[in-house]
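We give this protein:

***
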Amino acid sequence: MNNDFIQRWSLALVILSGVCLLASPVFADDDDDDEGFSAPVVQVAPPSGDAATDVLNIQGAIDMATPGTVVQFAPGTYQITPGTQFVISVDDVTLQGDDDSRTTILGVAAFPMNFLFQGDFLLVASETTIRHLTFDGFDYAIEVFQDDVQTTSHRIEHNTFRNGFLPIQTWSFSDDVIHIKKNKMVNVQFAVRVIGKTVHFYKNKVTSPEPETMLAGKPFAVAIIYPQLPTGVCENNIFEDNKVVGNADGFIFVSFPNERCTNNVVRDNEFVDMRVWFDFDFGTLVWLQGNGGTMEGNVIEGNEVEGSQGVGILVTEAQHNYIVDNEFEDFVAGDVLPWFLEFFDVPLTGIFLGEATTSNYVVENEFENVPNPIEDWGVDNIFEDNEVDDDDD
């Protein structure tokens, strides 16, 4: 594999987005949803059927919020005019839909040309919670900006995002966790973009039942994760216990020279029917992409990939990462192959370690009906107790 491979995909991601477990960070699961607590409530007027009126009503309720307030939406569909942005600048505010998830906020999705602070709901305070809302048709539904001064986390939970470009985007310099959990993402190009550190994305479900209705006619990736400027750090993010069905790619970690992506974890996720629509899709669970930066100490553990038309895990220009106890099965080619597999005449592959990979641990992984379980183009990568079971019946 040559540098053209790296350069082509590094550029593509920018354009499209605009064994040993010592490296594993440990966060509290924080599975308490904190529902049922007593708090002051500001009611949003019921949907009016008019976008301008709905925007004024939502903004009015947000403006009335003080620390500890729940901004309660009514059942029904609120319409949002293009270019609207609600800024949550008061600490400890909850935006909450109807408990039966009957509250929808309807936007207009298009390919965004700018991805800086474009979220329709922009969170710039501390400890914001958003729950029980359905966001339909947004470029960026929720955007979180968390600097190193803020001392409490955000929670985005029990929401549904559908028919949009990128439901959630986070910018974080802080060591405090941003919890994104138990959400449903349906027919979205990406589920989340993580810029920086300390995001815990868990127990979410990402599906693409109608890819032909999506902006690009297909999904891209579940998540793109890369360093926050100017720190150049991407670390301590956890992606755990999610289910993904029918996507093109999973979690893509990217670093560039003088940047580092370290101590991230992808654990116990279930991926089903990973598809390749075009030759720049990989059908992958994880891609660790070093690009001349530091990509090390990341853990990919206990995941299941059932059905892929490409590569299960792809590692390029990365060192000292841990790929442990993952299961890969039933890889079958579709109409299109990832371009580099076809160019280098490599069959569908479970784990692919490209050039400039060194001292990565690949241990106790299982492969069943995977044409090429492991492809190693690196130096001193370590392979132990991996198991291959081909069903010839």
In short: The longest helix spans residues 3-16. Residues 317 and 356 are 5 Å apart (CA to CA).
